């Protein structure tokens, strides 16, 4: 008998029929003798609908109220799934975040889980009742409902698995595992049997939204066995593992991409100590996160300073840069929002040289210009024109031989 936390995503909960299908799956585990705690998302599209509704009333309104509204999507699906389980003769009880309770900090719309009291859920399991918990939400010390950021139900699932010391956390979704890249962009993408936490964290941070970044962080930190599986198709899915040196790692495990960034350039900045701080300080003060940074000294001794921010922050960042650039006597501020970032990720990169040149050569052969580059120990990212994104993903997928099954 195992204790399993199962999380079902928005597509899996997308209609009454699908919720009934999820109930049948959960019932199968219960009937085999497992203890199951279920975490669910809102029906697909519902959180978007709720946030649009909120913004239509007051786009700059209180984030506390946005959370109050956004969290209702999950309150509906927990109830529906508990009803569907009841119809199958399985005892089930639904819980919102505050009813568990799941305590969070006060950072509305991107709150962090600070603690979970597992007693109620444990008592249910022992009494043969299946708890169905709302993902994505918790309660702050001030008694307000707070949400965990988009895709946050994954994090609820992993955090509950950690709090209950569950044997496994299973993330059920609309793909049957983690693929070498998003199968919606490259149909030849291949399911991975396993991927390390470290690689999964890079993939998630670089744009692969199959798991929320914080869920992977949490699972790594608390060593929660984590698996991504399909709701609709049986199979082993993908296990997220601690590094296993017995198996030789493939050079590249996957390709991630993200269309969410925009690029800003300040031209002709005087080249002297303190310039980077003078430019980026005010951006930080405006609460804008900066991702990639490139600084280049020209022959005339001036500097071009380029960086990327989230597209949503582009207008504000441009405003800040115009002010700072005038103060510093720079030549001007430029920018582009039609860019995309493509990254190759793999722990095997640590022990192999030449991955970067192989990547750049493949992109050059496809006629794709690179605007920016950044690297870390296990990833290389490039910024390119957005119109070439899909071509770049497919080109790199092929160049690194990701369609072929690995020998391991
Ligand atoms: P859920 O609603 O179940 O949480 P998501 O839409 O958040 O589902 O995540 C699943 C989606 O993630 C897939 O449909 C797929 O398009 C996308 N995805 C992006 N990158 C990958 C990847 N490397 N492997 C698998 N799926 C990926
Ligand atoms: N319903 C929330 C969202 O759409 C949380 C989730 O699905 O994980 O972001
Ligand atoms: Mg998701």
Q: Average pLDDT value?
A: 94
| Envelope shape | globular
CATH superfamily of the largest domain: Acetylglutamate kinase-like
Distance between the termini: 31 Å
Radius of gyration: 23 Å
Amount of beta strand: 25-35%
Structural category: alpha/beta
The number of strands is 20
- Extract low-pLDDT stretches: none
Classified by CATH, the class of the largest domain is: Alpha Beta
Strand line-up of the largest beta sheet: 3-6-2-1-9-11-12-10
The number of domains: 2
Distinct ligands? adenosine-5'-diphosphate, aspartic acid, magnesium ion
Structure description:
The chain has 12 helices and 20 strands. Strands 3-6-2-1-9-11-12-10 form an 8-stranded mixed sheet, with helices on both faces. Helix 1 packs across helix 4 (72-87) and helix 11 (355-365) packs across helix 12. The mean pLDDT is 94. The chain folds into 2 domains: 3-245, Carbamate kinase, CATH 3.40.1160.10; 248-400, 2-Layer Sandwich (VC0802-like). It is 34% helix and 26% strand. The protein is globular. The protein starts with a strand and ends in a 9-residue tail after the last helix. By secondary structure, the protein is an alpha/beta fold. It has helices at 16-31, 46-57, 63-70, 72-87, 119-126, 153-163, 197-205, 213-221, 275-285, 314-328, 355-365, 389-399; strands at residues 3-8, 35-40, 92-95, 102-104, 113-116, 130-134, 137-139, 145-147, 168-173, 194-196, 226-230, 238-241, 254-258, 261-270, 290-297, 302-310, 332-336, 339-345, 372-376, 379-385. 43% of the residues are buried. The protein binds adenosine-5'-diphosphate (ADP), aspartic acid and magnesium ion (MG). Residues 9, 151, 154 line the site of magnesium ion (MG).
